[in-house]
Amino acid sequence: MTQSRPRNIPEATVARLAVYLRVLAGLADDGRSHVSSGELASAAGVNPAGLRKDLSHLGPCGVRGVGYSVAGLRARLSEALGGERSRPCVLVGLGRLGSALADYTGFASRGFTFVGLLDSDPATVGTRVGGCTVRPVEELEAVVRATAATIGVITTPAEVAQSVCDRLVAAGVRSILNFAPVALSVPAGVDVRKVDLSVELQVLAFLDQQRAQVPAPAAALRTAGSLG
Amino acid sequence: MTQSRPRNIPEATVARLAVYLRVLAGLADDGRSHVSSGELASAAGVNPAGLRKDLSHLGPCGVRGVGYSVAGLRARLSEALGGERSRPCVLVGLGRLGSALADYTGFASRGFTFVGLLDSDPATVGTRVGGCTVRPVEELEAVVRATAATIGVITTPAEVAQSVCDRLVAAGVRSILNFAPVALSVPAGVDVRKVDLSVELQVLAFLDQQRAQVPAPAAALRTAGSLG
DNA sequence: TCTTGTGAAACGCTTCACAGCC
DNA sequence: GGCTGTGAAGCGTTTCACAAGA
């Protein structure tokens, strides 16, 4: 229990802190000892001033005229985001997407471990995905309680997502990442983040189409090149 | 004749329009002919007034005192988002996540068809995923030009994402959905949307931890920090 | 000089309240 | 009476400009 003060850090900032942390890991692997806000911002794809403002929520992190210590900043960010402690997660719905997530090394390397994988398909139950055996969805409550998981990931079809969500919440899960294309309703005190992959594509397509209809603003657009 | 004006619709609004469109499809399947902003907003997980403001970007869509025609609003939204016309997409990197996306029916039902799947692994090349045969990544330029695809999806490891991106752009792709955990740099006129799954989980975990540190529920969020 | 840290302005999005129309 | 459409207020985030400090 260090003096980590939970000053309300804006959610948008938290998301970027996670990105900075990953970039710093890469810099550390390259043997770098210091980095400036400009370089770090460039690698993270953000504005340098914005990066400094983000870091200012953690108090002074750098040295003026010099930059940031890679190791020092990394430790600071890691602690602010919850430390290296392992976080037990359960995932429900091992279709294509669920299996991909359960086997995604990007999670494990950040302290997230899937301690429970649940599916309703008898053909999937019993198989091993990402080092964990899939169990029948009937055992959901037992698994959540046994593992004390507070984070749940839903990758089921939309039709059953709400009932799965209800069961997760009843069993003690307070944070849910929802990939099913429905709006989940949860009681106060439970947080849901939604990731909607087809919406992402649709937004991209909209912008793409919008750009195609309007002629190039300056000479920014290259000739498309496809003639017949 | 088609007086649909592509007035700059906020990006956040575009994302929600796609959600409304999906909800409307469900209502149509249920045989509903009309719906109010309240009901539609509830199903989409948003504020009713916000929904009406979103729709206001398309001009008047409903009937005061009555609500919205399900079929009429659906047609309007569909057209605003780019219509039903099929959009050719290419996807590079058929690991677990890439395969899941290529086989995701949620895309196909919205007019997105993967006309090119590319991978560098000889063991993956030649297999069929979601009705399309995987081809060697060397053929990237040829596939993009042959299909006139303007949308690309990158699900490769981070190390090769930038080079894949460069090749997509050079071949004519102007809109990219990036799942690799790196910031891609692209010339002006090209749009990149990034989806970072491990960041989503990390933000969720941060909020989860933050809530765990403050024992009291709900109302206690405001009272932290002030000294009398 | 160089770079961080930060108030303040600027921006975009959300929420509210109510006018307008059925 | 009921519901939509919308100006205006409110809020959070981003950007700017510069003071502070190694």
UniProtKB/TrEMBL annotation, chains A, B:
GO terms for biological process: negative regulation of DNA-templated transcription; response to redox state. Residues 83-183 form the CoA-binding domain. It is found in: Cytoplasm. GO terms for cellular component: cytoplasm. HAMAP family: Rex. Residues 19-58 bind DNA. One of its GO terms (molecular function) is DNA-binding transcription factor activity. It holds the Pfam family Put_DNA-bind_N. Homodimer. Modulates transcription in response to changes in cellular NADH/NAD(+) redox state. The keyword Glycoprotein does not apply. Belongs to the transcriptional regulatory Rex family. This is Redox-sensing transcriptional repressor Rex. It comes from Modestobacter roseus. InterPro entries: CoA-bd, NAD(P)-bd_dom_sf, Rex_actinobacterial-type, Rex_DNA-bd_C_dom, Tscrpt_rep_Rex, WH-like_DNA-bd_sf, WH_DNA-bd_sf. NAD(+) binds at residues 93-98. Keywords: Cytoplasm, DNA-binding, NAD, Repressor, Transcription, Transcription regulation.
